[in-house]
Design goal:
- By secondary structure, this protein is mostly helical.
- It has helices at 19-22, 27-39, 46-53, 63-74, 81-104, 115-141, 145-167, 176-202, 206-233, 236-239, 245-248, 254-260, 265-280, 289-298, 301-319, 327-341, and strands spanning 108-109, 112-113.
- 70% of the residues lie in helices and 1% in strands.
- It is globular.
């Protein structure tokens, strides 16, 4: 039997992988970030206020702003703008999630109705656009031009990645190289930008800047591969999202690419037709998906993908050896472990 995706139990969480403990050095700052995001919901437009209240004012794990604040904290950067910058990073992430949910027709995120489900595609699309534009406008308000430059570049990369992924829907010939190019843009770009921005503002030495940027990039890749695995193996009550949504939308993720390598052409054609049929006739539960998952698992595709995530997590942690040991470095190491072993 191949190795299955193994993550820590939610019922008995490992203390070192608790986000509340990992982010303890920046607990106060993250609370301020949440207040900033809540204030984004305060607008005179009732429709805008309501959709903002159900999205940006209910943030998730805050990993990207957490990265930014841990690195600025390590260097002792205490400029008061750091909270607004961290909130802007999270707002960009929220905008990308809203667009994701429209593309995927997702009903659930974080265990609650998505903006797409609650308000429909038109309002959601406009609000996602609004968040992206509002975030860049806020970035332009800072005196340092680097802030807007870095965040605008990351936003553009994220959208490019989404377009490339959408264009490759149901393409069972997608290569690993193309897959990693997609996730480098759509997911890893904002992780990398968060680390780059923090080290730039803090005035870190050039060598450390490079290491931290590489750390963020690899962490983003780990995050996405684990997301791909959770789409297959995660429980809805834990992930807050419906299972098999990637398969339903024809998203070709790493486990599927690894499995396809062993399939003859006839099986590829059969699976492609089956996925397109499931896409048209989607319902819960979906007959056949569990059998399909079993094939991926027994063939070693899931274990192989997890091993790749572990290797990338190792590379990320190696980048942190340039930092002096201490509370902030330890939190960054533990955050890497959390991203790898998370269950939601």
């Amino acid at each position: 039997m191949s190795r299955s995706l193994s993550l820590p139990s939610v019922d008995r969480p490992q203390p070192e992988l608790s986000l509340s403990l990992i982010f303890s050095p920046i607990r106060t700052e993250l609370a301020q970030v949440e207040r900033q995001l809540f204030n984004w919901a305060r607008t005179s437009n009732p429709a805008l206020r309501e959709i903002a209240r159900q999205t940006v004012s209910r943030p998730g794990k805050l990993i990207r702003p957490g990265l930014f604040l841990l690195i600025t904290g390590y260097f002792g950067y205490k400029n008061r703008d750091r909270i607004k910058i961290a909130a802007t990073i999270e707002a960009i992430h929220s905008a990308s999630l809203i667009h994701d949910d429209i593309i995927d027709s997702s009903a659930l995120r974080r265990g609650q109705a998505t903006a797409f489900k609650a308000f429909g595609p038109e309002f959601s699309l406009l609000f996602g656009d609004y968040l992206f534009i509002k975030s860049i406008v806020r970035a332009l308000e800072f005196k340092n031009n680097k802030i807007a430059e870095i965040l605008a570049e990351a936003s553009g990369q994220m959208i490019e990645g989404e377009i490339e992924e959408l264009a490759q829907s149901f393409n069972l010939e997608l290569t690993e190289k193309a897959y990693f190019k997609i996730i480098s843009k759509k997911t890893a770009s904002l992780f990398r930008a968060s680390c780059r921005l923090a080290s730039e503002l803090a005035g870190a030495p050039a060598e450390i800047k490079s290491e931290l940027e590489t750390f963020g990039f690899n962490l983003g890749l780990v995050f996405q591969i684990v997301d791909d695995l959770l789409d297959l193996k995660g429980e809805t009550q834990e992930t807050g999202k419906s299972r098999f949504s990637d398969l339903r939308e024809g998203r070709i993720t790493l486990p599927l690419i690894r499995a396809i390598k062993t399939w003859p052409d006839e099986q590829k054609k059969k699976v492609a037709g089956w996925l397109k049929k499931r896409h048209r006739e989607w319902s819960e539960p979906v007959a056949g998906f569990n059998d399909f998952l079993l094939e991926l698992e027994t063939g070693g595709a899931l274990a192989s993908s997890l091993k790749t995530a572990e290797k990338l997590a190792g590379r990320a942690k190696n980048c942190l050896t340039k930092l002096e040991p201490g509370l902030y470095q330890e939190s960054l190491i533990k955050l890497t472990e959390f991203v790898l072993k998370r269950k939601k």
